[in-house]
Design a protein that fits this description.
three-stranded antiparallel sheet, two-stranded antiparallel sheet, 10 helices, 9% strand, globular
């Protein structure tokens, strides 16, 4: 057999327990009052981001999710790091609760960034205390842990209700209609999972 026919390379975008990236940096504009916000407001922003990260993580490989959630604080829904970019005035909220699997499919990648962009815009333009009034926003570490458990157990009678409620909530956000197609894809967990799954085992011929 020729070298071209030998299966010398196997590629996959399945992360399992490997911290291979996939973090998303959401920039805080220089004129945003979130830059000098109180600790309470900053924590509220993190809770809102953690809440809306749920459907993204729901589309991941469950083994990857279970391993990540079973460790320390890294890679959990509320794992968001606030920091300044080196040698720059830029300040970001680094969302670290998802694996890198969303990157492997172009439609999912676009949808993920559009979806979180809509949520981030709402955080920047609406008092977080107002957003926190929704009963569907996570408010305590125990509630975050409860969603972790649902994500791993796939107990659909409850979990489907959580997803539907979050979908309906984001529909009330200002920029939802601008990215309706992308956001609706994120909340179609079955379809999004299948699209990601098709790219977990990448065809060698398509990349060599």
């Amino acid at each position: 057999a020729s070298a071209k026919e030998l299966p010398y390379l196997t590629m996959t975008s399945l992360s399992i327990g490997a911290p291979i990236g996939g973090h998303i940096h959401l920039e805080v504009p220089t004129d945003s009052d979130l830059r000098n916000a109180t600790d309470i407001r900053k924590k509220n922003a993190i809770k809102i981001l953690a809440t809306f990260l749920t459907p993204i993580v729901a589309s991941e490989h469950k083994l990857s999710t279970a391993i990540r959630f079973g460790g320390g604080g890294y890679g959990k829904l509320d794992d968001v790091r606030i920091g300044n970019v080196t040698n720059s005035d830029a300040m970001t909220y680094e969302v670290r609760g998802q694996s890198a699997e969303w990157i492997c499919h172009p439609e999912i990648a676009r949808a993920t960034l559009a979806y979180l962009g809509v949520v981030w815009n709402e955080i920047l333009t609406t008092p977080t205390a107002q957003l926190m009034r929704s009963p569907f926003i996570l408010k305590t570490s125990s509630q975050v842990q409860a969603i972790h458990t649902l994500l791993i157990s796939e107990y659909t009678p409850i979990f489907d209700g959580v997803i539907d409620n979050l979908h309906n909530l984001v529909k009330t956000y200002k920029m939802y209609n601008d990215y309706k197609k992308e956001i609706d894809l994120i909340f179609d967990i079955s379809k999004a999972s299948k699209m990601i799954y098709r790219d977990w085992e990448t065809d060698r011929k398509s990349v060599v």
